[in-house]
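My current task is to audit a protein record that another person submitted. I need someone to confirm that the token line plausibly describes how this chain folds. Take the sequence as given and treat only the tokens as open to question. This is what I was given:
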Amino acid sequence: MASKTQVYQQFVKLFESAPIKKITGMTLSYNEEGRAVFVMPRNPDFDHALHDTHGGLIATLIDNAGWFTAAAHYEKWVVTTDLNIRLLEAVKQTDLTATGRLLRAGKNFSVAEMEVQSKDGRLVAVGSGSFMVTSKAIEV
């Protein structure tokens, strides 16, 4: 069985190969508590008509932070089964950081909560998600 550090490194490698990483410029790391941390640099190409980051990108950050936090606890692939998003305030054209926190990791199901902060530390969105373990092996 791989160490937690090795597991985190495998998931970072997995994300590095994802097309969405290349498009958005998001980066993934894990903090000392084993929480997935995503940083998305400001990109005006992802703005809505009022010239700020579109909520769909914020939802993607939230899903990623929850999924990668939960997935690191299992030896099989997990899928998002439920995702709730609350947009709390405007991003104001800045980089964003999303962090996941595992609330519960059962044998076949887990629940996480996630938050998104602006570069200056404002809480701009929160979310929660449920993740189900599948029978598919994780291949990195």
